[in-house]
Amino acid sequence: MSTSRPFKTRQLEALQDAEQAALYLEEALEAGDMDAFKLALRNVAEAHGGVAKLAEDTDLNRENLYRVLSSKGNPNLSTLNKVLHALGLRISVTIDEEDRPTQAA
Fold it and tell me: 21-46 in b/e burial notation, b at 16+ Cβ within 10 A?
């Protein structure tokens, strides 16, 4: 008898860890594909009890939250901030060393 577990189960267990969730979302953002980021955010939400629980934790409308996190959704910064905060995460800005403009002397 096999003792392996489905990938999705292992993924959701890993995403319950805040560090793993942050790395996962950061990778999705770095890919530059907003649909991939929204899918990753939905996966993190699922790992933390689902979108219905997230709606409750953020005081956002559940149906609107499903819509915003769908492939056709377009979350605004306020909604994204509330969602990340409810998941124990936050938005940050860092310097992109590769594309950093040189300063004039």
Answer: bbebbeebeeeeeeeebbebbbbbbb
Rounded distance, CA 9 to CA 34, Å? 24
> Which DSSP letter does residue 70 get?
S
State which residues of the chain have pLDDT below 70: 1-3, 103-105
The count of residues in the chain is 105
Q: Is residue 92 domain-resident?
A: no
Give counts: helices (H), strands (E), the chain: 6, 0
User: What's the whole-model pTM score?
Assistant: 0.82
Task: In whole angstroms, give the CA distance from residue 61 to residue 69.
Answer: 12
- Residue 70: count of CB within 10 angstroms of its CB: 13
Residue 80 falls inside a structural domain? yes
